[in-house]
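Example (one chain per record):
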Amino acid sequence: MKIILFFVIYLGVVNCFGNFKVAYNDGASMLNIDGDGVNMSGRMSFESKGETWDIVKSRDGVENRLAIVDTKGDVQGYVTFVKTTESIEILFYHRTAQAYEGILTFDGNVKTSVDAFSCRTNPKVGERVLGLKYGDADSELNDSLFSPANDLAVQFCAANFKLRTVGDGTFKIKMSGKITESAESKFKIAVLKDYYKSRWIPYYKPLDMSRCKKTPTGWLSWNTYFDKATAQDNLAEAKIGKKYLQEFGCEFWSIESWQGNSDKLPVSKFYNMNLEANPAQFPEGMRKLAQDIKALGFRAGLWVAPFGTGNKEFYQAHKNWFLHDKKGEPISCWNGLYTLDPTVEEAREHLKKIFKIAADDWGYEFFKIDGMSGRNKSYCAHLYERPEIRELFKNKDCKNPFELCVKAFRDGIGERNLFLACQGHSSGAEAKYADMARTGADIVHPNEPVKWSNVLLQGRCTVNQIFSHNISMIADPDTLLVKDLPDEEARVSATIVALPAQLTFFGDKLGGLDSAEMKILQQTLPAPFI
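Predicted structure:
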């Protein structure tokens, strides 16, 4: 849908500015604004001290305004239409030397794209959250319509404004204001193309509803097992999940810290760029584990961090794939002692290959890719942007090496499987390729219990990026943990995670939960439909 908002008044004679026309019917007092994909039609009226005054075609030949006529037939004021590049203002005011009270009202319908929803895009002072997508619910605070498919917002401004969803892209609208108040005597309608793309998300794409019909839910091992989980640990938890969570809608079982040398932190020492599983923890391999997870009725997920590796043998066999400083020494990062150079085509092809094997041969359907472009300066997006690092790439003309990585991930994962950008952010290339972004900090750290301060941080991280949640990517606030929190704090965390339909994954050892704690998890399920 392409919308350029230029308006013209016509009564019998059509004068056009751009792609929009505005028509007014004197007899029915009907205003119609029509353009590419948007139609706004309804009754315009003016009331003064209980009397209804007419709004008619201008009597003095001025084409961009209408006349307000009192009950005696005299022109007492005007309604003027003023266009700008992306908006129309409807001004109403007294004729010079006149003064009277009155209220101008427009009451009608707006018709636009079927995917559009009512929302709020104009924040008030001190607010950090905009009311965007929350299903078909309406709010008295809503002031806009937004179409994710077209990345297009229609903003309304009036002293008194109401917007109600009818369905199938139709909305009821009512605007009114006092002619005696200059702050109220104007309606404004603005159509903003590339609303997200031109402002915050340069890689904007609408959330792919074919992959994400609802928010994914599941369990992962990291936040209680950390680097020590085995295949049997994961399956033992999955059996408990099948008994207590699966019937409520728990869908995925995701495996973390499985690679060679992954049984001891830091992540930089893990064998992150090949498919070698840790033989002590996963002796039957990852394909067998995915089959066992599916046999229990879950879909299998896998954690990976392939921007580098700690595997020295792999590095030595593929030195040309990695970054080196001017002395020839390898560059390290959070993901590896040896950091990938994504401008090398062979390296990108290798990334595609390992993901394709994990998806198509092993059977994993959910991929949590860590170390993306979040807050940690040692993550690769930050590292790749540094001028001194950019000088080290094989292809120095590449505009965004990080994007090359993310695209390779998606190409390997395939179009049907889910991609969680762990420590991703909506202002980066993840938005174009990933389905979800891990916006929260770690809810817990190794050898520590979850704390109230972690829950508060979970809430702050939610606020930080919620404006793009369920529009471009689903937000991931990290797992919900209830075992080590008082009941009230556990319920707060459950509310932060599940009420906004954020990614809802659990991280406790399920066998250690009592019935009240398990009930909190059950009450977050099923995830709301987006």
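Caption: The first helix runs from residue 222 to 225.
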